[in-house]
Amino acid sequence: MSERTTNRDLLLPYVLPYALYVLVASVPADVLSREGNYAVRILLAGGALAWGWRHYARLRGPGRVVPSIVTGVVAGLVGTALWIALVLPFDPPAG
Fold this sequence. Notes:
Blueprint: H1 7-25, H2 34-52, H3 65-87
Helix pairs in contact: 1-2
């Protein structure tokens, strides 16, 4: 990214993958099968991500690999536990 890049320049690379994914996901099942819909979403959104890759901001971690991995694993476990805890009250009990 050059220093003269504006937010307007970044709008399309950041929004296009999501917009394509949502657009294809909204196609009715009688027009495109569920499996076909999923495949088209992956191809279009993946292609848009590949196209916009040079515009995306680089992620910079703490500098050391092990603390970064540990932080990611812990955050993933906490997020999964929260997800289950929040869904559990709405899940019907098994018969």
